Amino acid sequence: MSDSPTLHPDRNLAMELVRATEAAAIRAYPFIGKGDKLAADGAAVDAMRAFLGTVNFEGLVVIGEGEKDDAPMLFNGELVGNGQGPKVDIAVDPIDGTSLTAAGRHHAISVIAVSDRGSMLDASAVYKMNKFVVGPVGKDVCDIRKPIGENIRAYAKAAGKGVDEVLVAVLDRDYNAELIEDIRAAGAATRLVRDGDVATGIQAARQESRIDMSVGIGGSPEGLSLPAASRP
User: Fold this and answer.
1) DSSP state for residue 99 in the 8-state scheme
2) What is the pTM of this model?
3) Distance CA 216, CA 10 (A)
4) Among 3, 1, 32, which residue's Cα sits nearest to residue 17?
5) Residue 57: exposed, middle, or buried by beta-carbon count in 10 A (0-12, 13-18, 19+)?
6) What is d(CA 193, CA 197) in angstroms, rounded to the nearest whole number?
7) For the segment 168-220, what is each residue's pLDDT rounded down to a tens digit?
8) Coil, strand or helix: which one is 199?
């Protein structure tokens, strides 16, 4: 973070944004396990928008979840905050894992990613992105442009473990079916997740996690949030 609060988000702003995600999570809590993901999402969106309106910044929503799936949303292009302080881009998902919330399952989280104004990729026209997250062991070892089998073998060598010990998390979707087959053909194990690939990506980025990689196609809002969430 920069020492110049007029140009970059500072520590105080970072804590305010944490509180915004907390507000969304608290408001969504009564909807856990109630089977209505849109009601949960709507409650979280309303709480997050209301809280952000009190924060000293001008945030431009570069991408939000609702544009993709007709859910309640913070709109692409919407300005949030009270207009004072730094101008930033944000990617926002008040609940990543609405289906998990509705079903009462784990790993739904509230997400905001922030960068300097004009620096965040505008992926609002793209619904899906290909993602690849590894922890410190995989830095300068794995490459999203290479075949998954090659990446798994390189990672295993760098980590000092057998290929059969590598655990790769993938969203359980038809469009990832071939990737899942390739992972297993390489000798690694898969952890198929129904939703919530931001939480899974964060686990992959943590050195102490059992998940070694989080890979595959998923939503574009999560694709913008993950690089921020997984930075050391």
Assistant:
1) H
2) 0.80
3) 33
4) 1
5) buried
6) 8
7) 999 999 999 999 999 999 999 999 998 888 888 889 998 888 999 999 998 88
8) helix
